[in-house]
Structure formats: C-alpha cells, structure tokens
Amino acid sequence: VVSGTSMDRVYVHRVARDRSGHLWFLTLNNTNEWQPSIEPDNEGAFRYDGERFEQWNTARGLGGRVYAMAEDRHGAFWFGTSRGLKRWKDGAWRSWDTSDNFINNRVFTLAVDDEGRAWFGDQQRGLGYLEGDVARYLTTADGLVSEAVWGLSIGTSGEVWIATHGGLSRHAGDTWATFDAESGLRSTQLW
Fold it and tell me: pLDDT tens across 94-110, in order?
C-alpha cells in the first residue's frame, strides 16, 4: 500500500520500468483471495512519471490483476494479466485470451524480444509466444526444463531465458540449454 498518494489502498504485486524510465506499479484486484477488501477502482497498473501517478484500469482498457509489463522497442506496452495478454500500441488495445488459442487467460510473466515477439508463461503450461497474432507453445517435449514458467528475460543476443520450478532454460533459435540440479544448480525453483 502506498499511503498518502493517489495510490492509497492499492496493493502492488510488482514494479516494472519502461524504456523512458517511468515506473509501473502492477496491482492486485478486488478478486484476490487473500485480500478481498481491495477496491475495484484500484486495479490495473499505475504509471509514475516522477511527479504523479496515472492509472491504467478497466475504464482505460486494462483491468484485473496485472502480473507483468514490458515495452517493446517500438514503444508498445504489453501487459500480462488475469484476463490474458494485452498490448497498447498507437493508441489502441489488442487483447489475446483463450478465444485466441491461449491455453489459459492468465499471463504471469512476460518479455518482448527485439523482433517484437511476446514471450509469456502462466506458471503451469509451458512457454508461450506470439507468432504474428497466433499463440504457440513450447513444452518439455521441445526442450524446456519444466512447464512451470515463472520468469522470463531476453538476453543481449536475443535468446530467451526461462526461470521455472524445475531449473533454468535458455532458448536460442532451435537450441536449448538446461541448468538444473544435474548441472549444479542448487535450487531449481526459480522466479
């Protein structure tokens, strides 16, 4: 809770930074089981420009619990939410969910590579990515160490680093690398 600001009574799940250096406070929503008293007006995300907070909520096209945020190199904002993947680009929203071949509406972690491809995970069903506007998935059958994807990062050469509850995977083109207990990783439950 950020008291004494426009974010009073807001519960922040994660903080992200956009390419301009602005902070984004990603919030829980009023359907969160452990804190049912959260006000519906305080859901979505709050962007802080160094002086004030600007709320991006349902009225603005972004609602529910916001788990992750990324900005691509063209300035589009991507959000992983409890209601699917959302992109704000050129003043318009585009959303993807189960009606768009997503296995699950929940997008817990998100990263966008230099080609503008969004990579995502829901903590349970593998590594998803968008090929154009179509969702595709990579699983343990493809080389992923675990389908419980909790964190993503794009490396300096464009490779995707995937933190899972079974270890760490690196995906670069058709090449996979796995870092788990057998390779010396002391804890395989990564965020």
Answer: 999 999 889 988 999 99
